[in-house]
Amino acid sequence: MNSLIPLLIAAPLAGAALLLLGGRALDRFGHWIATALAALSCAFGLVLFFDMLGRDTEHRAVTTRLFSWIPVNGFQADVSFQLDQLSIVFVLLITGVGTLIHLYSVGYMAHDERRRRFFAYLNLFLAAMLILVLADNYLLLYVGWEGVGLASYLLIGFWQHKPSAATAAKKAFIVNRVGDLGLSIAIMLMFAEFGSFAFHPVFSAAGDATEGKLTAIGLMLLLAACGKSAQVPLQSWLGDAMEGPTPVSALIHAATMVTAGVYLITRSSAIFDLAPDAQTAVVVVGAVTLLFGAIVGCAKDDIKKALAGSTMSQIGYMIMAAGLGPVGYAFAIMHLVTHGFFKAGLFLGAGSVMHGMNDEVNMRHYGGLRKYMPWTFWTFMAGYAAIIGFPFLSGFFSKDKIIEAALAKGGTEGWILGGCALLGAAVTAFYMTRVVLLTFFGEKRWQPDAEGNEPHPHESPKTMVIPMVVLTFGSLFAGGLFSLGDSFLNFLEPVTGFEEGHSPLNALTVSAIATVCMAAGVGLAWLMYGRSPVPVKPPVGSLLTRAARRDLLQDDFNHAVLVRPGSALAATLVWFDSKGLDGFVNGLAAAIGGLSGRLRRIQTGYVRTYALSMFGGTLVLVASTLLMRSV
Amino acid sequence: MIATHALAAAGGNSPSIPAPHIEYGQLSPMLVVFGAALVGILAEAFLPRRLRAATQLGISLAGLVGGFVAVVVLAAQGHASTRAGLLAMGSVAIDGPALFLQGVILLTAVLAVLTYAEGRLEPRINGHRIDAFAAQAAAVPGGEQEREATREGLRTTEIYPLTLFAVGGMLLFPASNDLLTMFVALEVLSLPLYLMCAIARRRRLLSQEAAVKYFLLGAFASAFFLFGTALLYGYAGSLRLGEIADVVSGVAPVTPALAVTTQNDALLLIGLAMVSVGLLFKVGAVPFHSWTPDVYQGAPTPVTGFMAAATKTAAFGALLRLFYVAFPGIRWDWRPVMWGVAILTMVVGSILAVTQQDVKRLLAYSSIAHAGFILTGLIATDRRGVAAVLFYLLAYSFVTLGAFAVVTLVRDSKGEATHLSSWAGLGRRSPLLAAVFALFLLAFAGIPLTSGFTGKFAVFQAAAGGGAAPLVIVGVLSSAIAAFFYIRVIVLMFFSDPQPSGPAVAVPSALTATTIAFGVLVTLGLGLLPQYFLDLATKASIFIR
């Protein structure tokens, strides 16, 4: 059965290779191959999952070693996979949601000339993400990590003919490199400290290391997580990444990529649990990001960017939960899974709306679409209700648990974190209601596109609708199912550990307060956008609104703090290089050339000169041999 | 007091000279090649003209391949290791280094002879295929006789037996165990080479000038060798390398004559220096290198390739044997001097190559620099040094042969276009050929994954292990300078615009193609999977005394 684990990865990897190397012959049906292979991978995942359920708790985690990768004395790296409860959750999410997004893309990308390539990249994305979550050591995880970075780069910049897409892809890649640096430093620190980077030896030896070392490793891992999961301060790429085709956004935000950071922190729980300072940093990053993303989400008129802000905020919840330690790990993962369902549904819904509206993304140009796209509307509403935490839907369960865990931190910290989480819940309700109201309600504010075509909104084809419907079930029921008898918690506990938190408020009170916050957010949004007609041109807005429209000045900040000094440094180095180093190197070359030119003159072509030089050489040779003896 | 050594090896009262005992079997590689050379001369005398070229090629290949088979059989029988021994009354040593180098020389010669027979490059004259060698070597260049010979499509097929004689000499050179045999081998290999240099079909005056220069300077160097031999005999009372070593290290029984001569070390040191000069001349070490560019440029290119590869191999074999068998006892005297020679050779060779404009001269200076690199391995004075030098010679021979074979293919109306400017943009017009040449240049430069890297690494490692780290530093710096001019040619071929009236690349027959293909194969093979040959060289690295 363990042999299925490599196959799980091999299926999408083979798909990517086949589609990239297969050439035009596969243009007509290549996308179905990719979808089938994603589905096959998902099927393998399910088989492995049920196989795992069939074993008792102690024997659920299995490892399988494929081959020895870098066998050097004192440095052993294996291509070896570990499938435990945590990885299987990710496997099912990645392959399940991934397959649905493949299916959706069949319809969405039907008219794109480079469809085959697109599906190849999608498969590559899945494969890389699967390597990431199945690796049993940090080095192999790093391979998957970089693979995800590559695939996201390729997909965000898929419409590379648009300069904005090319720039966005570059931005995502470069910002992610900063995070990658953290991961590679963390791996080096681990190797220096533990002599290994495989999970088991590192975690079992973590107790022997000093707290300072563990904190350093933890902070570097956090930096890595910030990059991939778009957390402050490495969040700036996420909004621009909306330049990619919408299924890509769904894939990045729901099933892959941004979840990697949460996975990394949860997986490294053994290190973070022993490094409280690093944990505090994680919590702070999570809390800041959850508010940051939510505020940005409120101000965006671009439907995808509003959802991107929402993702940032929701991942912030997860990171915060993961930073709380054993109290929160399981809930972070649970929220990750439920979020995977409803965020995928929301993005696919947004894509469906764009599909019907000539690729318009500005919500101020939508309005009243519920009548024209009933399937899209209802599935979107399910995702909406789930994300705002409408009672007894998925988001309600997972988010409430996180709020509870935050409060359970105790003392002032607990109140601050809980307050942030509750405020975040209210703001989430506000911006999501705003999205729904602007898109589906109110009167039509449709505008002709650049070529002057009036939009004719219509429902999307079946390949797009079916995935949305399937995801709806996840949005509605997953949270309840997971909470039933704490099944999810019990399943994950052997890996992540669990501690009952002692919240100053009981669960019911927390739920009630959260629901009130949610209702307040919805109400405020209705007051602002539901009651009166929405202007097509955005009003000037308050200072905060204007800042939020500019992503809370993240790019201005980066430009001022990083780009400008960086350019100045680069310019200085270039100057030094061309004037100093090149001058030296060129001077040396010129000197050798000059010497060569001079020495050449000895080569006169006359035998007598040659004979003389030989004679002189012999004299010197004889003399120096004699001299050696006398010295 | 005048000391006299007894000249007769088998002294005593008996006036009769005993018949020497000759081990024909173990000398068979040389005997086969010399035999083939004699058959070649007979063929030259008796066969009709039109049959000669093909027959000569067949005889040469048979002789060389036969010789190679004999080498392999001898090695397989253990003559390279356990059964290594002194033959022909102690004048020839058949041991690991000798057999290894004989094998390399024979393989090189086979591939070189293939390029001799290439008849597709020159345009036909009156329906006759012609090759790179003069129609009639003895005719005055530009004279009526030459024109007539050219019209009739004559070819100098004597090149084949000449090559066989040279090869015979080269086989004996690294195997000779006394100074007189070494001298004879030196002359047997040199005299045919002087002639071979003179018979280029194109640019005949340049070719003849090269031959005369080579001859005069070669004779000069031989004189030094001979003088040195005399001085060494005067010191040690013997020409045998092993016996000289015994006297040098003081283990030989002291005869009255020896007691006198060994008081004066000047005899020994001057003799050693002068004998070295003769050999350093052949390997092209600075300051005895000045003949190299002129001769490499003037000689017919197939001969240049042969000479650059095989002569260097043979001469380094002799140099190794001289220093490792006869003079290990006074290595503290000769090592510093050879340090100087090696440094000078590497630096001067590399620097002079920088401003060369002719590809053959460029390769000549490159060969000088490589002689310097090989010398660093020699200076290691241990087994690893020997193994490294053996491997280097194997690697270098094939790269050189391949590179010169490529040079024969780039031609314009005046024959080979050797000026570098006409190589500009070659990569656009003949990407395959340019890529092959680029590979050879990278191997010369010692870029990893080519044989050049493995070889250079081996000699530098040996030198560093032998306590010559500064020499290695100079070697690496020279390599950096050398990389410049090799890569300059690559840049020229691939990143410059072709000249409108540039040279064309001739399509060779299977003969030259085989040589080039072997060159590529060995260059890549020794770069990617060198271990087998490194082991072989290590196994073959023990000299018999």
Give an account of the 3D structure.
- The complex is a heterodimer of chains A (631) and B (545).
- Helix content of chain A is 73%, strand content 3%.
- With 631 residues, chain A is mainly alpha-helical.
- Chain A has helices spanning 4-22, 30-53, 85-108, 115-134, 138-156, 163-194, 199-205, 211-229, 236-240, 246-255, 258-267, 269-272, 276-299, 303-323, 329-356, 374-387, 394-407, 411-440, 462-483, 487-496, 507-530, 543-549, 554-600, 607-630, and strands at 62-72, 75-83.
- In chain A, helix 2 (30-53) runs antiparallel to helix 3.
- The longest helix of chain A is centred in the last third of the chain and has 47 residues, at 554-600.
- Chain A is globular.
- Chain B has a domain at 327-540.
- The model of chain B has no long low-confidence stretch (mean pLDDT 92).
- In chain B, a hairpin with a 2-residue loop joins strand 3 and strand 4 (415-416).
- With 545 residues, chain B is mostly helical.
- Chain B is built from 21 helices and five strands.
- A three-stranded antiparallel sheet of chain B has the order 4-3-5, with no helix packed on it. A two-stranded antiparallel sheet of chain B has the order 1-2.
- Chain B has helices at residues 28-46, 49-76, 96-116, 144-151, 159-172, 179-197, 204-236, 241-249, 256-261, 265-283, 291-298, 301-326, 331-354, 359-379, 383-407, 426-429, 431-445, 451-465, 469-495, 510-528, 531-539; strands at residues 85-87, 92-94, 410-412, 415-416, 504-505.
- The A-B interface holds A 589, 592-593, 595-597, 599-600, 602-603, 605, 607, 609-611, 613-614, 616-618, 620-622, 624-626, 628-629 and B 212-213, 216-217, 220-221, 224, 265-266, 269-270, 272-274, 276-277, 281, 286-288, 290-291, 293-294, 332-334, 336-337, 340-341, 348, 351-355, 481, 484.
